[in-house]
Design a protein that fits this description.
It is a single chain. It is built from 5 helices and 2 strands; from the N terminus they run ααααββα. With about 100 residues, the protein is mainly α. The protein has one domain. It has a two-stranded antiparallel ribbon with strand order 1-2. Helix 3 runs antiparallel to helix 5. It starts with a helix and ends with a helix.
Length: about 100
Amino acid sequence: MVKTLIIGKGLSSFVRSLGREVRELLWRAVEDPDSLLSPEGVPLLERLIDINVLIDSITYRDPPLWIDQPPPERDLELGIGKHAAWHTPLHREAVRRALQGM
């Protein structure tokens, strides 16, 4: 499934198109997606949203709005930050493997 995401999203060519500093920023985002919420990270954040692997519009986590438990405010193991999150842990892993392939 991870290979399918890498191919389907064009992640290998996407990562190769990035400069060294932006790739380093992407490595940090793999560990904590909120690290993209900085002036230098916003362009990369927008590109990741465009290729549909990351979101920055996390809905309200107020307990009365949820039937069950609200999603965690942060769960870096799953790739969930307070303000940004990978679509799924598989999307994060696909980006990680594309970076490792450099």
